[in-house]
Amino acid sequence: MNTKLNVLLVDDHPIFLKGLVEVIQDEFQEFVIHAFSDSEKALSSANEINYDLVITDLDMPKRNGIALISELKLQNPKVIVLLLTMHKEQDIMRSALAKGINGYVLKDDVVDELVIAIEEVLKGNKYISELEVINKFEDQNEELKSLTKTELLVLKGISDNKTSKEIAKDLFVSLKTIENHRNNISRKLRLKGSNSLLKFAINNKHLL
């Protein structure tokens, strides 16, 4: 990647912030990092800098990570966001995902996972810390195992953002057959809603 990317890094713990800057800059020389320990100053900086990637802590005084992300997305809906947090609760993660974040990284695993998470979200993928994926879908593991080989191939196609028509072509079957597979997968995984299958496939892409 040769193009310089403006990266906003926000954490209210200066020592931790300094460590993050060093880790990220060492791995991504093309990044121009703008680091702030104050979320209000970070938000103000977005008036002058069009950020490509935002990496922010969740728990901060004045304005927490979710509030900061919401404001930044109003200014730039296409900005890519990674949220760093100590929280492993499913409701907090779901709330963050609903705000349009691209990655959710637990601070416990940040040294091991941050570089991988950055690489994934810049490719257009979602990234959720492994432990949180297990926690979130622990009651769906058996259902996932119940899928047939063909259903798993369909789910993999969905995770790659392929249309039903494209998946049908890849598997040499009819479009109606793929739609039947999609319905069966949703039923087995107990998914409801028009986008629930797509969300599940993307969040579990690494398992497929």
Features:
single chain; 208 residues; alpha/beta; Rossmann fold; Arc Repressor Mutant, subunit A; 6-stranded parallel β-sheet; 11 helices; 14% strand
What does this structure look like?
Strand 3, helix 3 and strand 4 (80-85) form a beta-alpha-beta unit. The protein has a 6-stranded parallel beta sheet with strand order 2-1-3-4-5-6, with helices on both faces. The mean pLDDT is 85. It is α/β, with parallel strands linked by helices and 208 residues long. The chain has 11 helices and 6 strands. It folds into 2 domains: 5-136, 3-Layer(aba) Sandwich (Rossmann fold); 139-207, Arc Repressor Mutant, subunit A.
Q: Can you summarize this structure?
A:
This protein has helices spanning 14-27, 39-45, 65-75, 90-98, 110-122, 130-136, 141-145, 149-159, 164-171, 175-188, 196-203, and strands at residues 5-10, 31-36, 53-57, 80-85, 103-106, 127-128. The protein is of the alpha/beta class. Helix 8 crosses helix 9 (164-171) and helix 8 (149-159) packs across helix 11 (196-203).
Topology overview:
Elements: E1 5-10, H1 14-27, E2 31-36, H2 39-45, E3 53-57, H3 65-75, E4 80-85, H4 90-98, E5 103-106, H5 110-122, E6 127-128, H6 130-136, H7 141-145, H8 149-159, H9 164-171, H10 175-188, H11 196-203
Parallel strand pairs: 1-2, 1-3, 3-4, 4-5, 5-6
Helix pairs in contact: 8-9, 8-10, 8-11, 9-10
